[in-house]
Amino acid sequence: MRIAKLVITGALLVGVTACGGSSKKPATAKATPVTSPAPDESPAPETGEPVASPMPEGEHHEDGEGGDDHEFAVPEMKTFHDALHPLWHDSREKKDWAAICAGSAKLAETAAAVKIAKVPANLKDRKARFTQLGEKLADKAEDMHDTCDAKNGDATLEALTKVHTAFEDLMQLMH
Question: Which of 22, 30, 69, 106 suits 14 as a labelling partner, its CA being 20 to 30 A distant?
């Protein structure tokens, strides 16, 4: 119900702006997709509500020129991203389940490093949540590595999606 109210409110604001409801130049805003949190996501400490991935399934954080728009305050997160990126963008799109499974050991290894990474001093207020999300990322990556089956694309895609979502949740925390 709350989502429906937000959508209706957003539509009304767009309609007023489009119909010239103000003589001022309208502000531009990017549309924010509505995402549903996965059932296994842990609640945010501030609100108690699940933390949803900031990107809809299948989309990512690339700019239109093919470069990343990420900044990595934690070097281990960049290393993890570098392992995840080709699996998510190349192998997944090609449905190359064998390549995804072959890369799962590297994902698990780099996720384990994220789990124990030091949080920079300017982000110490997020340390507890970083630790929680780092553990979730490591668990999802380890689960994927343990269960990856190149002959079962649906299960492999599901496991990879959980890893990707856990990483996006961690990236959202860092920004």
Answer: 69
Classify each residue of 144-160 as buried b or exposed e, where b means 16 or more C-beta atoms within 10 Å of its C-beta. Answer: bbeebeeeeeeebeebb
In this predicted structure, the answer to whether residue 146 has a pLDDT above a threshold of 50 is: yes
Residues 52-89 have pLDDT tens digits of: 333 333 344 443 333 455 678 999 999 999 999 999 99
Handedness of CA 127, 133, 138, 141 (dihedral sign): negative
Q: State the residue range of the domain holding 139.
A: 42-174
Provide the CATH number for the domain around residue 94: 1.20.120
Any domain includes 13: no
97, 151 Cβ separation under 8 angstroms: yes
pLDDT at position 58? 39
